[in-house]
Structures
1.
Amino acid sequence: MTQQSQAQQSQALPVNSADIDAAARVLAAFAVRTPLLSSPALDERVGTRVFLKPEMLQRTGSFKFRGAFNRMSSIPESARGGGVVAFSSGNHAQGVAAAARILNMPATIVMPADAPLSKRERTKAYGAEVVLYDRDREDREAIARDIADKRGATLVRPYDDPLVIAGQGTVGREICEDMAALGVAPDIVVAPASGGGLVAGVATAVKARYPQAVLMSAEPEAFDDHARSLRAGKREPHASKGRTICDALMASIPGELTFAINSRLLSQGITASDAEVGIAVGFAFRELKLVVEPGGAVGLAALLAGHIEAAGKTVVIVLSGGNVDADLYARLIN
Amino acid sequence: MTQQSQAQQSQALPVNSADIDAAARVLAAFAVRTPLLSSPALDERVGTRVFLKPEMLQRTGSFKFRGAFNRMSSIPESARGGGVVAFSSGNHAQGVAAAARILNMPATIVMPADAPLSKRERTKAYGAEVVLYDRDREDREAIARDIADKRGATLVRPYDDPLVIAGQGTVGREICEDMAALGVAPDIVVAPASGGGLVAGVATAVKARYPQAVLMSAEPEAFDDHARSLRAGKREPHASKGRTICDALMASIPGELTFAINSRLLSQGITASDAEVGIAVGFAFRELKLVVEPGGAVGLAALLAGHIEAAGKTVVIVLSGGNVDADLYARLIN
């Protein structure tokens, strides 16, 4: 495909690189401009050149602030008094809560009762009201919509919203800027996927600048709905009723908007087992000196486990967050 | 003092900014160019603008690689066969071992038997031979000199060497480059001190570009020889026979060369208790998502504890390393 025809195709997608440029302008004064890191120890371990995008260094400890703030900045003044409501296992919760505080809006977050304690506490610390639900028996979307109706609040979706995807896309835009400054082109770019908003945004930004780059979603083995859906060419849920230590990556099926993008721009979905994720969290502690939460480490886990054919390639791994309870972290690094 | 007279004075010191420029050229292809980070959570916590220089992201997990590689690159080809010998509690050990591997030289490291296990193991992993000694009863310098004599090895001092100080000074040079790019001038710059090589190099680089900046060494309360010596105007040992969790900062007296620099360029020495250091390590885990070892966190600890008059100032804190055993780390973050 030529660059031109690719650009034309991209215009038909729900988000394009101009949307991401606009999000970058909205976020400039509020989001952290995270660096692009490299590690001699990692390069030696995997035998190729790797760059890391450390989104645990982002405001709230994950990339989620980007999408939430970009979306919420678009809420008209007249509607801000009603506040916002969101459902989230924790990172979107913090992103929305932090954005709401900056924008001076009340925020209510519907969180699963088994979300990590640190994520619940941090969400409250940003001033949000937290409403807990039972992950196995209650419908979080219904609870959130009910609150939105009663309070006149705006529902801030975690991924299936063009402004959220565009906000997450600034991660990819920054990767491209920093790679260009280094004079290096990425061959493979990997980002974790739950609903798929991050990887959709990253893919949109990266493919606009590096059309030859191969984009991959990374998921826990037991929550492999992107891998399945990309193989099938249509949205499919994961088969598992299992759990994973990757609490941030437990969506059951790709988003509609995100999959419209990902099905066109991603080459494949890769997975890593919880054991492999644990090894990656420990590697990041010992060798990278970065605190990565399990869900944030799934791409690194797949790379370290040899699930990515990386030999001779320049690989970029998005480490999407670092919000992990201290007791789980202590177990994973020991 | 005018800038010119300060520059003239600096020329009399053992290391000047041209030496640091030269070190930067030597290190360019081998050291990691660490970023300058900021954290909204930290700025909010201390109520001012803070930048962090995260040297745990450096090759070997601390700044020490810089000085070791710069020094060892100067060893003539004819002397490289004899290898190098060094004494170190762990971070200089790894820096020397990693530099020796790159330069294809044998390395022997004299380490205290109570050095953190991870530091001993990582030093061996770089291919160095490790010789343990009893910190309380044996003279590590004598052991190292004996090895140097027997093997024809070059002794690589941990701090009292102009090329080592110049290598550590590249930390300050990078801080200046990144601050200049942001259009921000540092008011206060803090770096941990054991023998004082890092803070001497950083002070030399920062004062050359920002003569008005206030430079401070940071130490554990029980190992406050820089604070005492700066007050006294001459090298004085700390009074303590105590221990500290800051295993990297247990030198008993400032170096001669380093103090010649530090007594001229530092405004004061600040300290933090082990309890305050533990809080800083936990803060870095929860809020910064950076793995900082106790000795690397002592400047941050002093800032968080309110020991630095930071209100309204732009503060730069050097986080000097992240090599900490998992079991101690688990205790500190819980």
2.
Amino acid sequence: MSVTHEDVLAAAERIRGHVLRTPVLEIAPGVALKLEQLQHSGSFKVRGAFNRILSATLPEAGVIAASGGNHGLAVAYAARALGVRAEIFVPEVTSPVKVAGLRALGAEITQTGAIYAEAAEAAAKRAAETGALEVHAYDQPEVVAGQGTLGPELLEQTGGADTVLVAVGGGGLASGIALGVTGSGTRLVVVEPERIPTLHAALAAGRPVPVEVSGVAADALGASRVGEIAYRILSGAGVRSVLVSDEAIVAARRTLWAQHRIAAEHSGAAAFAALLSGAYVPEQGERVAVVICGANTDPATLSSG
Amino acid sequence: MSVTHEDVLAAAERIRGHVLRTPVLEIAPGVALKLEQLQHSGSFKVRGAFNRILSATLPEAGVIAASGGNHGLAVAYAARALGVRAEIFVPEVTSPVKVAGLRALGAEITQTGAIYAEAAEAAAKRAAETGALEVHAYDQPEVVAGQGTLGPELLEQTGGADTVLVAVGGGGLASGIALGVTGSGTRLVVVEPERIPTLHAALAAGRPVPVEVSGVAADALGASRVGEIAYRILSGAGVRSVLVSDEAIVAARRTLWAQHRIAAEHSGAAAFAALLSGAYVPEQGERVAVVICGANTDPATLSSG
């Protein structure tokens, strides 16, 4: 279950051409946004999905995944691109936009359970029956390595950044990036909603522990505990953990639209919220890169909430 | 009134740091989108506005502009950034989103006239009274040179493109880019809505002629004739002129959101519509860059129309 810097580099080779090299926008001197919300399927999740699927020998039954939405969309997208059958289990909290998107990608959908963990349990049971390849939303080595490909890409594009701000739900993206930027001198600041502090609680407890899941970003960051792999990597990497309020996330999302014409979902605006609200204050001259990680949202809400 | 390649390069120096270097996204091999809708004020227009204002000795009365909206937003943005007073005249067709944006930038607004030309006439009369510096929406050398800075920037970012597709209203952006890419071997394809064919009609007539203004992109591409400067440059540069239907523009805008999470206004999707609808068909291996030029739109309409 261990993942290394080299696994991230191998994943980058494996998924090249299947995912987009999303652009970076410098909105002010030293403040770069990594526009990963422009990625295929509307979030970073295709990086891990392609890496997991392309690393495996595929069974007849295809792939199966459980997801708050973005991971499901990513697995459905990758499966369609590779001509593989996909079954996606999503919790009932999932937004109609995301469910419609999944159906449009040709996946078979089962909507079950109040939160992510319950949908995941149902998917695992189904996988045991059919033999389909499980693609976990965050807690698999190939998934973490795939998400991590964003890290070296960002360093190349920015010519090195002092700090990367990234949101955490299950921790796949953050831990992948931590591995991906190992040795570069780039620090990681992981940002969580106050109402879903999976990593924050784990660091305090010394191990992944369940947390209450609520708030505006619950449909995408609503893992009830941080992944084992992510915890091992992030607790060892000395990352800084920062919490942001739902109000700060809403304000950041509104600013991304009003000032920058960037459409982001709430989870996608969480890392930017840390900067905008002052939850993280860069040093003088510090070069900061902020990952905008998803845009699977109803655009009608961009101005209002 | 003549403008040169060197004027574009000088403009790029002049406005550096005032405008964003907007990113490029390669959505498929050989198809790059220049995401100029992420520019300050939501469109390319700040390039010309900053260049015009920074080239002049400013009168007490500040600056004045007439605009279908985007140019007004850009002049208001640039004036605020430079601490200059701005008066903006906009036609009655201007969307409420754009008027609200203008007010938020601190500009004094006068909404008058059914179409752009009438608002422009009123602004010219007012400028004669107050002595304010007129910033034209397209037909001034400094404005054309400023918009043209997008051209060399795009060539740098793409490592050269065979073809640039760009929308035309008054022609400031297209003619500026034509000057900016002079000598690079890059061809220009200018795209207009069938219902506002200012350049198409001018090329047919041998001079700028008035056209009827209607359709989905009228609030941004609704100049009633192409600019004199733009006509001289574009008619001499051997550009290819392509028309697209309103239906094609609507479909392209919807695709930009649904497939790429890019929010564009109708005018901003016009160039992409030429590619998507087959109005322009690239050769095998041709590297195409498409300018997405504006996003000042009600996001609630991104999915629907």
